[in-house]
Design a protein that fits this description.
This protein is mainly α. The chain has a domain of 55 residues. The chain is built from three helices and no strands. The longest helix has 37 residues. The radius of gyration is 17 Å and the shape is elongated. It starts with a helix and ends with a helix.
């Protein structure tokens, strides 16, 4: 553990941000998985799940969890997969 007060704060802030990023990434991965499962089994409302996943990806990108190009790539691949399954 750091001895300097500002370094101790940086450790606390980093841990808090790490937890927030992990939560956001987990929600995004869950939304993506729901779309993937729905598209492969052709059960459920895949289009609605896709919109939910795209929204989650955009939210993660706006918070800096994903780079904007990574978010665009994920959205593009998901959309192509859904369109191919329909």
């Amino acid at each position: 553990m750091a001895n300097i007060k500002s370094a101790q704060k940086r450790v606390r802030v980093a841990a808090k941000r790490q937890a927030q990023n992990k939560h956001t990434k987990s929600l995004t991965r869950t939304a993506i998985k729901k779309v993937t499962v729905s598209a492969s089994t052709k059960e459920g409302d895949t289009k609605a799940l896709l919109l939910n996943a795209i929204s989650a990806i955009d939210r993660a990108a706006s918070k800096g969890v994903y780079h904007k190009n990574t978010a665009a790539r994920k959205k593009s691949r998901l959309t192509r997969m859904v369109n191919k399954s329909l």
